[in-house]
Amino acid sequence: ATKTLGGTELARGIRAEVTSAAAELTLLGVTPRLAVVVATDDESSAWYVRSIARAAAKSGLLCDIVDLGADATTQSIRAELQRLSADPAVHGIILQTPLPAGANFEDLAASIAPDKDVDGANPLSLGRLAAGLPAYAPATAAAVLALLDHHEVPLAGRTGVVVGRSNVVGKPAAQLLLQRDATVTVCHRYTQNLGHHTRTADVLVVAVGRPGLITAQHVAEHTVVIDVGTNPTDDGGLVGDVDETSVSGRVAGLTPVPGGVGPVTTALLLQHTIQSASRSEPS
Ligand code: NAD
Hints:
By secondary structure, this protein is of the alpha/beta class. It folds into two domains: about 30-115, Leucine Dehydrogenase, chain A, domain 1 (Rossmann fold), CATH 3.40.50.10860; about 140-260, Rossmann fold (3-Layer(aba) Sandwich), CATH 3.40.50. The chain is built from ten helices and eleven strands. The protein has helices spanning about 10-25, 45-60, 75-85, 105-110, 125-130, 140-150, 170-180, 195-200, 245, 260-280; strands spanning about 5, 35-40, 60-65, 90-95, 160-165, 185, 205, 225, 230, 240, 255. The chain has a six-stranded parallel β-sheet with strand order 1-11-8-7-5-6. Strands 3-2-4 form a three-stranded parallel β-sheet, with helices on both faces. Strands 9-10 form a two-stranded antiparallel ribbon. Helix 1 (about 10-25) packs parallel to helix 10 (about 260-280), helix 6 crosses helix 7 (about 170-180) and helix 6 crosses helix 10 (about 260-280). The N and C termini lie far apart (about 55 Å). The relative contact order is 0.17. Bound molecules: nicotinamide-adenine-dinucleotide (NAD). The site of nicotinamide-adenine-dinucleotide has 25 residues, from helix 10. Belongs to the tetrahydrofolate dehydrogenase/cyclohydrolase family. Keywords: Amino-acid biosynthesis, Histidine biosynthesis, Hydrolase, Methionine biosynthesis, Multifunctional enzyme, NADP, One-carbon metabolism, Oxidoreductase, Purine biosynthesis.
């Protein structure tokens, strides 16, 4: 039987801790504050930003949505990130994607102060992560590990296979698995015979953005599958990258979409902001 590795209970627990920590910090004169920089009119991005703002408000964090508009220039986005990085009242900064044509995400994210880089977007954060130095991991990659720990999936000495190599999910997830002594393979769009690699996985992390990419032929009975993909459906729903019907009953565990990685990601963004705020002096 396939175990469902849900994320809502874990997310609720993290948010409860965040809520009490936010109240404590506020009493001390530091109200945790997250800033989300937006330069797009993309609908799903707006939906995601609203969900972060709602979660922040519920936990007692301030959340500023800094909307620069879809025609913002690289210079104006960089200037805003620098301003927020220098503002002592701001503890966390997120740069939302997509960005206007011609703007480069990694290049801009380099202007986020590393101690406020709560979504691990600054290339310095990824480098520090790879070097085993303290850094914020991208919240989604951190959520993958938090889910595995919550469901007591062992990692040391196990085979971890990550499908997708983006700087925000695939690469940092691979680094975090490596840090936990897993033997890690990273697959991507040029990987030949994907199933040959994924079938070796004790833990399979899929972060591609292609519904139905992973089917029964890609998995083994011992595989625990973490589905990071979020693909909107025609009827307004959400599906992952894993064909749930196909793999169900053929793997050891599977995260649901929605209700798996997503809620944990949002909770960890807030948790990172709390960590940053608790290191700052009362203003
Ligand atoms: P991306 O487009 O930046 O990267 C996709 C990766 O998949 C690339 O590295 C590419 O090489 C690889 N790829 C493409 N086609 C492939 C194929 N046929 N076989 C194997 N690999 C292939 O995407 P991303 O930002 O890493 O996001 C991946 C997915 O995760 C998306 O669905 C996104 O919406 C979702 N996501 C979810 C959360 C969350 O909180 N749940 C957060 C971020 C991203």
